Amino acid sequence: MAVELGTKERIDFLKKFDPEIAELLECEAEKQKRTIGLIASENVASPLSTCLEGSIFTNKNTEGYPGKRYVGGTENEDKVELLAIERLKKLFGCDHANVQSGNATIANSAVFMGLLKPGDTVLSMALNDGGHLSHGAKFHFSGKFYNIVQYGVSQENEQIDMDEVRNLARKYHPKMIVCGGSAYPRLIDYVEFRKIADEIGAYLWVDAAHIIGLIAGKVIPSPVPYADVVTFSTQKTLRGPRGCGVILCKEEWKDKIDRGVFPGMQGGPKADMIAARAVLFKECMTPQYMEYQKQVLKNSQALAEGCMEEGLKLVTNGTDNHLSLVKVTDLVASGREAELLLESVGIVTNKNVIPFDMLNSNLTSGIRIGSPLMTTRGAKEEEMKRIGHLIGITLKSKGDPGKLEWVKKEVGEIVEKYPMFSDEWNLGGE
Ligand SMILES: *Cc1c(COP(=O)(O)O)cnc(C)c1O
């Protein structure tokens, strides 16, 4: 099971050999069980998939690609990798997939490496408006070696301003346009992005790291028919283990993308990681998985409603996906203070910059909240709305220890009800 610590014998041995790590492992299991996890980029990994992470596949060097390895004896790993790729093609209807990147930031770097030359112009969404650091932030590889132009959201409705995107594209003629981010609660207009990219002959790359689970579950539109390249991580809404970046692309870009990953960005991939993802992708095609993703969306909307009923303001006034951004500076000094206050009652969130933020990224004016993890634990709409209320009550109760103590007790009652991975989603049995 995902949250069990291992077989009893192994844990007993670990306790004897390395009591420090054994204790931290137990503390972490306790903490995960006893808190309401709302970090939008976190989930509880599929137990079936987790079984394969760290399995004996890890012993094998598999540098290269199936049929073109630089070492012998890879026949089983070749089959595993080809299965993972076939399943992705079926799941998303894409031409080609690469599953070797060690995380999505590496996969994104490989897209730059494979499709562009240093100095090429790229149009992407600003980090402060919800984009990701690997789309050209100054401190990332992409921002150091490429000419980055950025678009943001409109002051009026806090959503992507397609006129601004079109104007910037016409003015700067980027080789690539990027959309998709880490803190954007609304749907993205892929049709319009495609039109703009076609008008100037640019690649369209969609980074779907956050929303890929909702796409796999078919509860929000897929970018695959429109994009040249789609990248994602497997640990967020997709509900797999952390540490794998996937790239889907059109047939034409297959070789460039594969060479971008290996040898462009890394050496031999982890065969155990790929086996774990192959199982995950099979899980993504089950009816239970579709139900889970429907519930993630319903729960996200219920959580947002709960917050708004308490008078909290959300960026864009709501959400179309698994996450919301809550503006907190009417009630507390910063997102950082909100994060700490909520953590003190057992609700785990993260501070997050919001569009047109007046505070820096260490303080911020918002928090980001999401539904994937509590949905995996089995929470439904009513409970999520209640959690939204508790967030509001907490932020209003700064300096009222009695009230905060009361919220903490409520949180305790909620987490008591749920296992880490609800039986209704569990395909792995006991
Ligand atoms: C989380 C995220 C990534 C990075 O994923 P890692 O697997 O942690 O490297 C990339 N892009 C976006 C939009 C993300 O939200």
Automatic annotation (TrEMBL):
The keyword Ribosomal protein does not apply. It is an enzyme of class 2 (transferase). It catalyses: (6R)-5,10-methylene-5,6,7,8-tetrahydrofolate + glycine + H2O = (6S)-5,6,7,8-tetrahydrofolate + L-serine. SUPFAM superfamilies: PLP-dependent transferases. The gene is glyA. Pfam families: SHMT (PF00464). Catalyzes the reversible interconversion of serine and glycine with tetrahydrofolate (THF) serving as the one-carbon carrier. This reaction serves as the major source of one-carbon groups required for the biosynthesis of purines, thymidylate, methionine, and other important biomolecules. Residues 14-391 form the Serine hydroxymethyltransferase-like domain. (6S)-5,6,7,8-tetrahydrofolate binds at L127, G131, H132, L133, E251. Its cofactor is pyridoxal 5'-phosphate. InterPro entries: PyrdxlP-dep_Trfase (IPR015424), PyrdxlP-dep_Trfase_major (IPR015421), PyrdxlP-dep_Trfase_small (IPR015422), Ser_HO-MeTrfase (IPR001085), Ser_HO-MeTrfase-like (IPR049943), SHMT-like_dom (IPR039429). This is Probable serine hydroxymethyltransferase. Keywords: Amino-acid biosynthesis, Cytoplasm, One-carbon metabolism, Pyridoxal phosphate, Transferase. Gene3D superfamilies: Aspartate Aminotransferase, domain 1 (3.90.1150.10), Type I PLP-dependent aspartate aminotransferase-like (Major domain) (3.40.640.10). Homodimer. Its main location: cytoplasm. The modification N6-(pyridoxal phosphate)lysine is found at K236. Its EC number is 2.1.2.1. Belongs to the SHMT family. It is found in: Cytoplasm. Pathway: One-carbon metabolism; tetrahydrofolate interconversion.
